[in-house]
Amino acid sequence: MKSILNKSHLVESIPNVLPVVPTMDIVVFPDMIVPLLVLDPKIINGIDSAIETSKMVLLLAAKKNENDGQDSIGTKDLYETGTVASIMRLIKIPEGGIKILVQGVCKAKINNLSTDNQSLSATINPIIEDIKKENEIELKARVNNLKILTEQITSSGQAFSPDFHIIVSKINDPDKISEFIISHLNLEVNEAQELLETTSKIELLDKLYLLLSKEVEVAEMQEKIKNNARDSINQSQKEYYLREQLKAIKKELGEDDLEEIEELKEKLQKLPVIETTKKEIARQLSRLEHTVPDSMEASVIRNYLDLVFSLPWGKTSEDNLDIAHAKQILNEDHFGLKDIKERILDFISIRKLKQDSNTPILCFVGPPGTGKTSLGRSIARCLGRQYVRISLGGVKDEAEIRGHRRTYVGAMPGRFIQGIRKACSSNPLIVIDELDKIGSDFRGDPSSAMLEVLDPQQNKEFYDNYLGVPFDLSKVIFIATANNLNTISAPLLDRMEVIQLSGYTLEEKLSIAKQHLVKNAIIDTGLEGREITLENCVLKNLIANYTKEAGVRQLERIIKKACSKVARSFVETNKIIKLSPNNMEKHLGPRQYLDEEALKKDLIGVTNGLAWTVYGGEIIKVEAVLLPGKGKLILTGQLGNVMKESAQAALSYARAHAKDFEIDEKIFEKNDIHIHVPAGAIPKDGPSAGVTMLTSILSALTQKPISSKYAMTGELNLSGEVMPIGGVKEKVLAAKRNKVPHVILPEKNKNDLINSEKITDGINIIWVDNANEVIKQVLVDEKSKRT
Ligand SMILES: Nc1ncnc2c1ncn2[C@@H]1O[C@H](COP(=O)(O)OP(=O)(O)OP(=O)(O)O)[C@@H](O)[C@H]1O
Ligand SMILES: [Mg+2]
C-alpha cells in the first residue's frame, strides 16, 4: 500500500479541530487506505463540513463491548488515540448514508471530544514521528528476526499467501515492514489499538514478532491435526491391504474358508440325520460360502453350524440295566426313600424286558432339601446316562425353552438343545428342576412350550427355533422336581407321574446325617482319613437346635460348618477338636431354635394349628380374644379370603351351638371377637384352620384354657363336621419336630398315613369326625385340669 499523497505536506496542514468518524471492528493505521460506510447523520454532517474545508477527519476506533451492536456507541466508547485520515472519495448511497474512501495520514491523540446535535468533533494533537532516533542495529536485528519468522510461516504453508514472505524479505524499512505485517494480521480491535498506541518502533516490532509467532504456533497445530487424521486413514488402508494379502496367501496355501466349508460338507454327508435336515444344513453351508468371510452374517452362520455339528445326532449311550447295580447305587446315594427307589427299580426292570417301552416322566414333589434333585443325579448314575440339570425357576421367556429365531442378534438355542449339546449324547437324563416356579409374561408362556418337550408324541420331533430343524428328544429320560403342585398347569401335570416326598423324621435325619452328610462334609473339608466323629448326641443337637426344616439342607450346611471348624483347628494347632453338646455353642454360635416355652403353656384363646407350606409342615398359633363391642369379627394376620370365610363359619357354628357349650347368648351382643394369626407379615390362606379357629373362639368365649399338648388341623363345615385336608404327613412331622404329643386330624384323612409308621411313631393321633370331639379333648376344665 503505497502512499499516494504527499505526506509531510498533509501533516502540516492538519487543522486543530477535526470531525470524528468512529470506526467499528477496524483500526486504521497511517498510510492505510480503507473504505468506510457511514450512516449516522451527525457523522455525515461532520464529513460534509470536512469536504468543504481540509478534507480531513479523525478516525477513532470504537471499543469492543460485550453487548456489541446492541446499543449505539457513545463518546466514552471511543479510544483516545486515532488516525487522522484524508478523504479521497465520497459516494452518496441512494438509500441514505455515504461511503468514503480514506487514507491514514498520521496518528493523533485527542485533547477534547465535543458533541452537539450537529456534529462530533475533537481537538487533536498529531503524533509526529518519534524524534529520538532509535538504535539502528537493534532495529535491523528485529527486522531480520521478523523475516525469518515469516519464512517459517510460509514453509508450513499456512495462514498467509506464498508471496507474503517474498515481499517481507524485500522490505528493509522498519516502518514499512510493520505496516505490511499489520495489514496481513487478523487482529482484534484491542490488539490493533495497542499497536497503534505504541510509539517506539522497537517495541512495535517486538509486539509484531510475538503476534506472528502465535500465528506460527496455530499453523503448526493445524498441520499436526491434519497429519494425524491422514495417518489414521493410512493405517486402516494398510490393514485392509495386509488382510487382503493374507487372504490371498491363505488361498495359495489352501488354508482358506473354502477348505473349511468343504470339510463341513463332507461331515454333513456322514451326519445321521433325516433328508430334510440335511438339506437345511447344506443350505446354510452354501450361504456361508457366498458371504464375505469377515461379515457379521458369516459369523452368525458359523455359530449356527458350530452348534449343528456339535450336537450328538443319533449318538446314544448304552443303559446299564443291572438291577443289583442300580439298587446299590441308589442306596449308596440316599438313605430311605423306599417307595421312590422301588419305583425306579420297576422302571429299570421294564426297560430290561422291553427296550422301546414308553419312558414315564417322573415328577418328584416335596419340601426343600428332601433329595429331589440329588435323586435325579443318582438315577442318571445308576443307568449310566449323562446327567443334565435344567432349572426353570423364574423362566418367563418361551425362547428359553424353544430358542430364539436366528434373525435376532445374540440369538441362542433353547435350554434343552443347549443341554443336549453339553451332554454329548441324545439320550441323557434331564432333571427339569423347579418346574413349579416357571413363570409367564408378555414373552410367552414357557409352561405350554414345556408341554411339547414332555409329550412323547411331540418330542420325537422337537423344534427349536434357533436350530431350525427337528431334534429327537424321545430317548431322553425326563425327571421333574417341584415343591408345590398347585402352581403347575394341569396339562403339564397330566403328562407326569407325581411322586411325593415327605419331610424326614428326626430319626431319618439322624441316619441321613450319619450315613451321608457327615461323610460328604469330611471329604469336602479335606479331613478324609483323620479321626473325626460326630456322635449321635451332637447330631441330634444339631438337628433340634440348629435346624428347623422338613428336609436336610440346613443340616447339611451346619455339619459342613462343624467340619470346617475342625479343619481350622487342625490347621492352626494340629489338633482335632471333638464336638460335644457342651462345646457346640462355642464353635457353631448360639443355638438358633430353642423349645418355645409359650408352646408348652395352656392359654385361653391360643390354639396350636398345623399348617402346610411349600417348606413343609409348620405349627401356627391361632389366637382369639373378646373385646367389648357389638358382635363384630375382627381378623388380622394377612388372612386370605378362604381363611377369612372359615373364621366366619367357625364363629357362626359357635354361636349356633352356644347352649351346648354353656355360653350366654348375650356375650355375642356385647363383645367383638378378634382373631389373629401370627406371624402377621406372612400371608396365609386355606380352609384347614377351621377347627383350630373354632377352638380358639370357644376358649375365648368360655374362658377355658386350651391344652398346649394338642395340635390340630381340619376344615369345618356349618354342621360341625370335620372335613379332610392336605399335607397330613408334613403336618404330623411338624408336630413331632415341635414336640407336641397329640395331633388331632380329620377321620377322613386316615388313608394318608397308611404305611407311614415311621412318621406316626411316637406321636398320638386322634382321629375326629365332629368339632365337638375336638372341643371335648382340648378345652381344659379348671376342675379336672390336666397335668
Ligand atoms: N435321603 C437322603 N439321603 C442322603 N442325602 C440326602 C437325602 N435327602 C436329601 N439329601 C441331601 O440333601 C441335600 C439337598 O438335597 P436336594 O438338593 O436334592 O434337595 P431338593 O429336594 O432338590 O430341594 P429343593 O426343593 O430345594 O430343590 C443334598 O446334598 C442331598 O444329597
Ligand atoms: Mg432341588
Index terms:
single chain; alpha/beta; seven-stranded mixed β-sheet; binds adenosine-5'-triphosphate; binds magnesium ion
Task: Give a short synopsis of this structure.
The protein is α/β, with parallel strands linked by helices and 787 residues long. The chain contains 27 helices and 24 strands.
Structure overview:
With 787 residues, this protein is an alpha/beta fold. It contains 27 helices and 24 strands. The protein has a seven-stranded mixed sheet with strand order 17-18-16-15-20-23-24. It has a five-stranded mixed beta barrel with strand order 1-3-4-5-6. A five-stranded parallel sheet has the order 8-9-12-7-13, with helices on both faces. Strand 5 (98-115) and strand 6 form a beta hairpin. Helix 9 (275-289) runs antiparallel to helix 10 and helix 24 (690-702) packs across helix 27 (771-778). Mean pLDDT is 84; it is low at 1-5. Bound molecules: adenosine-5'-triphosphate and magnesium ion. Magnesium ion is lined by residues 372-373, 433, 481.
Overall SS class? alpha/beta
- Distance between the terminal alpha carbons, to the nearest Å? 128 Å
Distinct small molecules: adenosine-5'-triphosphate, magnesium ion
Biggest β-sheet: count, sense, barrel? 7 strands, mixed
- Taking pLDDT < 50 over at least 5 consecutive residues as the criterion, the unreliable ranges are 1-5
The number of helical segments is 27
What is the CA-based Rg, rounded?
51 Å
